[in-house]
Amino acid sequence: MTQGYDPVPEKATPVAKGPTAKTPPPRKSLPKGAAKPEKIEKPEIPTKPESELKFSLLEETTRPAGGWSGPASADMPPPNKGKKPTPRGADGCLAGLTMVISGVLDSLERHEMADFVQRHGGKVTGSVSGKTDFLILGMSAGRSKYTAAQAKGTKLIDEDTLFDYVRSTKPQPAEDTMPSTKPIATQPGEPLATSAVEKVPAKAAASS
Predict the structure, then answer these.
(1) What gap in Å lies between CA 118 and CA 114, rounded to an integer?
(2) Predicted confidence (pLDDT) per residue in 8-51, tens digit
(3) pLDDT (tens digit, 9 = 90+) per residue, 153-199?
(4) 74: buried, middle or exposed (CB in 10 Å: 19+, 13-18, 0-12)?
(5) Which of 119, 124, 129, 136 has its CA nearest to residue 98?
(6) Which strands sit side by side in the sheet containing 134-137, from one edge to the other?
(7) Contact residues for 157 (Cβ-Cβ < 8 A; gap 6+)
(8) How far apart, in Å, do the first and last CA atoms of the chain sit?
(9) 86 close to 164: Cβ distance less than 8 angstroms
C-alpha cells in the first residue's frame, strides 16, 4: 500500500491592486421622532432704484493711497452723525442676510453699522462674494465693491433704506384714543364723574 502525501501548494501570482474607492462616511441621521430643522427664509428688504440711493463712487482718476477703501475715504466722518435716530427693529429681523459696507454712511460709522446689522441677526463681511445679499453704499464708495456687486447680482441699498426696513419690523405703540378716566370734581356730597364722557349733574353745573 502506497503511503499518501500532501502536494505542495503552488504560490499564487500576486494581483496588482488598483486604487480603492473611498467609502463615503455615513450620513448622520436625526434621532427617531426628531423634527427636521426648518430652512430659514431670508428677509426681503424693499430696494429702491439706484438713482434714488444716497451714494457716490470714487473716481478712478483719484484713487487714494491704500486703495479704494483706504484711509482717505474710511476716515471721513458721517455728515449727519448724531443727528438722526438709529431705529430698533424686531429681534432677528436681518437673520440669514450677509452684507458688505462701502463708503461714508449718512449717520453711522462703518463699525457702528456693522454692529447694528449684527444686533439684528445679520452678518457683515469685508468683500462682495456670491453669498453677499446686500451692499450698503455711502458716499465715496469703493468702485471695486460696486462693480463686484453688479457682476454677482448683489442688491444695493443705502443707510436710509436699511433703517426704514428695520423700523418697519417693530410695530410702534398705538396712540391712546380712549377718553380720560380722571375723576371730574363736583360739589360736595355729589358722586364723581368717572370719565370725560360722563356728564356732571345739572345741579353742579348750574352752581359752578
Answers:
(1) 6
(2) 556 656 655 655 656 666 666 656 666 665 566 899 999 999 99
(3) 999 999 999 999 999 998 766 544 445 555 555 566 655 555 444 44
(4) middle
(5) 124
(6) 123-125, 98-102, 134-137, 155-158
(7) 45, 47, 48, 53, 134, 135, 136, 137
(8) 150
(9) no
